[in-house]
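Anyone have tokens for Putative N-acetylmuramyl-L-alanine amidase, negative regulator of AmpC, AmpD? Sequence:
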Amino acid sequence: MQDTTPSQVIVACGRTVDIDSPVVLWNHAGGFRCPHPRGRASCHQHPAELNDAPTQPFDAYRIADPDRAYEELTQTVHQLVLHYDVCYTSRHCHEVLQKSAFMGSHFYLDLDGTLYQTCDLYWKTNTAPADDRKGNERAIHVEMANLSWQARAEESDLYRAEKDAYVKQGTHWRLQLPQAYRNTLRTPGFVARPARTYGQRGYFSRRVNGRMVRMWDFTEQQYEALIRLCFGVHALLPGIGLKVPFDKNTGRTPLSRLRNFATFRGILGHFHVQAGTTPGVKCKYDPGSAFDWGRVRRALETQQQTTRLGNASR
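Reply: yep, here.
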């Protein structure tokens, strides 16, 4: 029987942390189960055949000893990888991942800021193999609702948009959702607006991993929820540092794969770990050109400064 109690917690090996933001868990009404979870090879509180075997029934993914599992997980995971889902909403994203043979994500982040956790963080989801093909072992993933490449209708390829998905009303832009997804958001009547716009055209255009990416920004609600998720994931898994990639020489987050992509301990983008330098591994560009790395970095730094001051005054 599904739990209908409103949630603000995220879960790792049965342990929870309250992130002060709406979270719908996989076993709650309206939740989404990860379509294709897998076991992590470096964790051993599950049958080894769950690591890379074809997807099993969801109930087969059980943790034998949650306390030992948690110890193993904290020693294994040190990255939170951010993605755009190239979808209209989180429900749309879930539908797409269900059709795949092996893909999934620990979290979906919807336009209205609702987070969906699809499985216990103990499990692996195949979302970003990285250029060393070991990325999913060390990472937690969040797919954030954003059409990304469809900033301009003539460049759309996945859904063949006949017209631009964003329209301007007065001084504000808003996303026009197809009828099939207008009522799938948890917040009734929610209007999706980009948190920032660029000039008269509205969308952002920057080169990511060597390719020009034109996309609209995420919503204000998504940024607020994501920052709270970062704090919560760090609280559960301290190996994920409260930092993003940052180049002191330029004063910006680099928009290309990192040299230390495998050892970086913190929050980073899919493009930071995967430039397609390994045969069979695609070059990636998410979370794209519009993502506000500066906002996230400042929020993380402010929280850490507040914590240090609080500790010093005790």
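The longest helix spans residues 293-312.
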